[in-house]
Amino acid sequence: MHSDQKHIRSLLKNDTLGIKLIYSQYAKSVIRMIESNNGSEDDGFDILQESLIDIYNIALHKDFQLTTSFQSFLLLVAKRKWLNQLKKNKLLEVTKLTDQLLNDEDHSESQYNEHLLQNDKENTLMELLATLGESCKDIITRCMKEKRQEKIAESLGISYAYLRKKKSQCMSKLAQKCKNHPVFKRYQS
Amino acid sequence: MKSIEELIEDYIDQVLTEEDQLIFDDLLERDPNFKRELELRLELHKLLARRLDPNNDELRFSIQEAENSYKKEGKKDTIILPLIKWFIPVIAAASLIFVGRFFYYTQFPSIELPEMTSETVRGNQNLTNDHYEKAVVYFNNKEYKNSSIHLKKLVDSIPTNVVYNYYYGLSLLGEQNYGEALGFLLVIGDGTSVFANEANYYAAAAYFKLEDMVNAQARINKIQETSKVYKKGQELLRKIE
């Protein structure tokens, strides 16, 4: 087990002191990488936050093991996030990027490939969920967080039967959006 | 009669009636599209349950708190520095009281940085060469704040150059900026360059100064026996133990 696994544990346990230590040791390097690649300091902080959440979600998988330093892994996750953001904002083609961001043969990337791809898939799902109407987003989110759906129906002022019907419609809409996305291509008919 | 979507949701939430269960089983057996739809919906449920877990929200809160505190610390440093000038004599007197406590970690063992050699490095151009040569002079004069300025420019221009990253890490160490120095030294220490052993030794020294003995030990253990810094690493290890 890598000695930097302690930072992973800090995230998994939501240890506030441990998370502060992560910031004091690694925030500058992430922000510097983003700033060197057409981003602002604020972009750097946003990417750092999202990267730590990603690392937490990746670390929830039981088979995940940190095999490099935490810094290498964090920079790898942050790099992918920033490249994705540039792609989404259609800035990738017009941005001069440093070698650090463009290096495709990142050794550590191949070690974590499976986990990173799974994480991309989960992030895509969350983005697709965000494109649903407010009512669908609310119902799906509530139903995932609270198992007693009778309570949810009551708090929304609707019948349980209607909630069930609405939930299945919303999940169906989300599933359809997923099927149209290349990340979920194996479900395309 | 329930729609296919409702049947699947009822199955996933385990609220299928006996009658619907028969319809569900029948569809699953004879309709491959139904089976594929079910697989997708099961996967979506699994992923959503994980991502929408309340622990995720709590972590976001802690991360935001850490970011605020990190930004505040930075600002506090900038505001407090001018004030410190007025209190230098007071601070000096007070620190004498604590000198015994801090002597161990800050003075012993001292980090002796190697000499930075003047040489032509890969990818050189006039501008980078100029920064490199200036960095060499400042670094060897132990004027680390100035050497860091030039080395940062070099690292920014060619982030993958190991020589620039290594000396920038050391220069930051010279500035006693241990956290940031680690950012550079750890990556090199985990790599396979000729600087890997040295980077691990200096990373261990940085951890030592940060009083993180577990990581300091781990870095020393990475130093190969054949390395020039192996002996120094072992000396540091004895101090830690």
From TrEMBL, chain A:
UniProt record, GO biological process: DNA-templated transcription initiation
Origin: domain of life: Bacteria
This protein's record includes keyword Chaperone: no
GO molecular function: DNA binding; sigma factor activity
Keywords: DNA-binding, Sigma factor, Transcription, Transcription regulation
Family the UniProt entry places it in: Belongs to the sigma-70 factor family. ECF subfamily.
NCBIfam families to which the protein is assigned, alphabetical: sigma70-ECF
Protein name stated in the entry: Sigma-70 family RNA polymerase sigma factor
Source organism of this protein record: Sphingobacterium humi
Highest classification ranks of the organism: Bacteria, Pseudomonadati, Bacteroidota, Sphingobacteriia, Sphingobacteriales
UniProtKB/TrEMBL annotation, chain B:
Transmembrane regions listed in the UniProt entry: 79-104
Keywords: Membrane, Transmembrane, Transmembrane helix
Origin superkingdom: Bacteria
Name listed for the protein in its UniProt record: Tetratricopeptide repeat protein
Organism: Sphingobacterium humi
